[in-house]
Each structure stands twice: as structure tokens, then as C-alpha cells.
Amino acid sequence: APEVVDAYQQVLENDNLDHALRGEALSLPGESDIADAVELSDPQAIHEVREYFIATLANGMRLPLEACYDSLNQDESYQIDAASMGKRRLKNVCLSYLASIKDEGVHAQCLAQFENANNMTDRLAALGALSDIDCPEREIALKAFETQWKDNALVMDKWFMIQAGSSLPNTLEQVKALQKHPSFDAKNPNKIRSLIGRFAMANPVNFHQESGAGYDFLTDYVIDLDQRNPQVASRLVRALAKWQQFEPKRAELMKASLKRIHEQSGISNDVFEIVDKSLM
Fold this sequence. Notes:
By secondary structure, the chain is mainly alpha-helical. It has 17 helices and no strands. Helix 10 runs parallel beside helix 12 (about 190-200). About 35% of the residues are buried.
């Protein structure tokens, strides 16, 4: 395992940055990518196995990961050349692995990067790492980011996305609560995509929770939104469209949600077309 980190650093030193910029040498496939590779997806099982694999790698490679991170976490001016971008990518991949280790020292390390970052890439990477950890540092970073950027709508979209994408089990309740946040505008498509879309499209473990609560939430939201913005509603409902790819219990719950939308009176043509095709 340490040889992988050494080889990755050698790639950077040789200015062969294609793999570094994409993070291919250390990054694992996402949960959605894994789901696409299996016959019938069980998002909870995929999440647990992937998290176990990441934690096992991180604990086994902790020393070389920390050494690599420390070597790249230097107080340097922000540069946007390929080499600098590759180094930031590698540093933040290392941090994401370390964040899977249950250690208060790692939590402090993530918060330190967040507070000391001189660029948004590093700040968001640290905030993203903390978003999946139930720790005091998570709330400190989220609050600090909100305080600093509350008047910048585009940056606040990132704040919503990070929370909507969290793997913590209370994320659905957080998404519901964030709809009442002063920076969230239910009429703004960007805000809807950053919060509701992110949860439904890019948070498999929480959207596809076994109880079906994620499906119920999205179904209610799509039905309501369809009256105001059928175009955005039609994009959101696509999160339910591939129900055949999931294990039987989830598939039936997703199909039931589609049927409930299909049976609504006054449903828009945009939403009806997608739902109708999905149920064929």
C-alpha cells in the first residue's frame, strides 16, 4: 500500500498529471458507479462495504497517508497551474481517507485545513470530509462557512450541497430543515438542485433508505413543485425512474411513488412523460 502513495507522488514529480488531476490512482469508484455495476442494487449494503473498505485502507496506510498529506499541505500561494491542481487533488484525497478514521486528531486536522485554507477547493474538501462525521468540528465548520458566505448565493449552493450529500443518518431531516433556511429560495432552480436534487440524485444511502422515507419526501416535493416549475420537477423525478435496477423491496417502493405521481390530477406533461415511460 505505501508503494501506491510513492508512485502517485512520482507521477506528480514527473509532471505526468492526468491521473493525479482525476484522482484515479487513489480514489475509489462512487456508490452510484458501483450500483451501476451490479444486477440489483442495495444502496445500504454498497455504502457499508465501501466505507469498510475505505476505513481498512486508511487505517492500514495511515502513516504514509499522513506523510503524503503533510508534504503537500504547505503554506504556499494559490496557483492554478496543472502541477498545483494535482497536488491539491492528492492532498484532499489523502484527507478524505484519513477522515474515515475514528480519531479526534483527524477531526481537528480537517478543521485546521478548513480554517487555514487559502482557496475554496481546500476549504470545501475539508468541509466535505467533516460533513460525514458526527463531531463538534463539523458544526463549527458549517457555521463558519455560513457566516462568511451567507450573502453569496452561488457559494451558499455549495453549502447546501455538502449537507444534502452527507452520509449521516439524519440527513433527510436536515434537508427538510434547510428548506426553511433564509438562503434557500423554493422558487430558485439552483437552490432546489443544490439541496433537493443533491439529496435525491447523489446521496444513495440516505435517499434509498429502506423505510422509503426518501422516496416519500421526493414524491411529495415533486407533486408540489410540479404546480410551479414542471421542468425542474421532471428532472427531480428521474431519481425514481430506474426502479428496476434495485432490489425488490426498494423497487416496489419506488414504483409505488411513481404511481402516486402518475395518479395526480393536473400533472404536467413534463412530469407525466417521464413517469409514464418509467412505469411501462
